[in-house]
Design a protein that fits this description.
Helix content: 55-70%
Shape: globular
Order of helices and strands: HHHHEEHHHHHHHHHHH
Structural class: mainly alpha
Number of strands: 2
Number of domains: 1
CATH superfamily: Ammonium transporter AmtB like domains
CATH topology: Ammonium transporter fold
Largest sheet: 2 strands, antiparallel
Number of helices: 15
CATH class: Mainly Alpha
CATH architecture: Orthogonal Bundle
Length: 427
């Protein structure tokens, strides 16, 4: 019955899009389209797309050999699930007409109604509105995929898909609306998030912490990564895609994009090198895994500040983020929380560091410029977002677990998720 129900639900969604989706329209303001901005944003959108397969390799290389395929698919499947959900209602919830500054009206762009190929001046005045929607889609895709590292090796695949859908609707979309919509609550409260430090990384990190706590420890904890070259490949793809992630958030081929591009590279490089030498300071090996994690932490931390700080400040952000996240990972290893791939200490803590330092360093409005309002608002927003995402995710996990058991059986976990969930394995 469950298999038939899944197919019926999918068929219903396809019919909805067919019936309610409108043809692409070109309105009178199409002459406002800037071809240079449009070309760059198509490339940036493609760059952010490649980050999700990159994440699949990054996570897949760090788990045990019996769960590589499952872990990679948990990231990869988000490309399909969230794309369909975004067209039907996700984009409207994130960027539709504001309802109290918290969430968008689900009917505004239902099934991409009125998502035209002419610019929408409220969001991006020089590129097609459809392109803006597709760029934002890539952020919505990678956010739930990031969470999967915390409960890798022990979650049922169908239950994960259900959780991903609920998270996108009830956690991600409201945060995106509050932060990036012109009438959003946090945006109008002067909270700065250039490319998703709060919306993507903090939310994923807090949800990851909730997931690790809810599902509990693995039956067998194998800390030896299955494939380090996968991790290095994934890091390279993520770093490459992050240029679109941060520079694309300028929404045009302009000076902000160039500044974000430079800061993205320098912060990540600084964080990677800092991580390696900080490990050596404690007489630990300068490992390739550490270099990769350090690079990712720098990318996470610079994300909210990418367009608001100087090169020197981006170096500082990468340096501080590497040290704080490294210490957080060491504390996590001593705790009873089994965050499999340490998503919270890297993405969650990295996002928090980036958000705080954005309030400190942001040009003209940061604490170092004698302004206190932005910094204070960032601290308050940090607490609000953390509580909303953590407890909201716990509630969603409970709802999913009630409908579909979240955790695989003990025998399935011991056999590995590749065989028990997908009937496939790496020889």
């Amino acid at each position: 019955m469950g298999k038939k129900l899944n197919f019926i639900v999918l068929s219903t969604l396809v019919v909805l899009v067919l019936l309610f989706g409108t043809e692409y329209q070109i309105l009178s303001n199409s002459d406002q389209i800037d071809t240079g901005d449009t070309a760059w944003m198509i490339i940036a959108t493609a760059l952010v797309f490649i980050m999700t397969p990159g994440l699949a390799f990054f996570y897949g290389g760090m788990v045990n050999k019996k769960s590589i395929i499952s872990t990679m698919l948990q990231s990869f499947v988000a490309l399909g699930v969230i794309s369909i959900l975004w067209v039907i209602v996700g984009f409207s919830l994130a960027f539709g007409d504001s309802m109290y500054g918290i969430i968008g009206n689900p009917t505004t762009y239902f099934c991409f109604k009125d998502v035209v190929v002419s610019p929408n001046t409220d969001f991006a005045p020089t590129i097609p509105f459809l392109l803006f929607a597709l760029f934002q889609l890539k952020f919505a895709i990678i956010t739930p995929a990031l969470i999967t590292g915390s409960f890798a090796e022990r979650i049922r695949f169908r239950s994960y898909i259900f959780f991903m859908v609920l998270f996108s609707i009830f956690i991600y979309s409201p945060l995106a609306h509050m932060t990036w919509h012109p009438d959003g609550l946090l945006r109008n409260w002067d909270v700065l998030d250039f490319a998703g430090g709060t919306v993507v990384h903090m939310s994923a990190g807090m949800a990851a912490l909730a997931g690790a706590m809810y599902l509990g420890k693995r039956r067998v904890e194998i800390e030896k990564p299955a494939n380090i070259p996968f991790v290095i490949l994934g890091t390279g793809l993520l770093w490459f895609g992050w240029f679109g992630f941060n520079s694309g958030s300028a929404l045009g081929a302009n000076t902000d994009a160039v500044i974000a591009f430079a800061n993205t590279n320098i912060a990540s490089a600084t964080s990677m090198i800092t991580w390696l030498f900080f490990e050596r300071y404690f007489n630990r090996k300068m490992s390739s895994l550490g270099a990769c994690i350090g690079a990712i932490v720098g990318l996470v931390a610079i994300t909210p500040a990418a367009g608001f700080v100087s090169i020197g400040q981006s170096v500082f952000i990468g340096f501080i983020a590497a040290i704080v996240s490294n210490l957080a990972i060491q504390l996590n290893k001593k705790s009873k929380i089994d965050d499999t791939l340490e998503v919270f200490p890297s993405h969650g803590v990295g996002g928090i560091v980036g958000m705080i330092l954005t309030g400190v360093l942001a040009k003209d409005v940061g604490l170092v410029y004698g302004a206190y309002t932005t910094f204070t608002h960032h601290l308050i927003a940090l607490v609000v977002v953390a509580l909303f995402t953590f407890f909201g995710s716990l509630l969603l996990l409970k709802i999913v677990d009630t409908a579909l058991p979240l955790r695989v059986r003990t025998d399935q976990e011991i056999r590995g998720l590749d065989i028990s969930q997908h009937g496939e394995n790496i020889d």
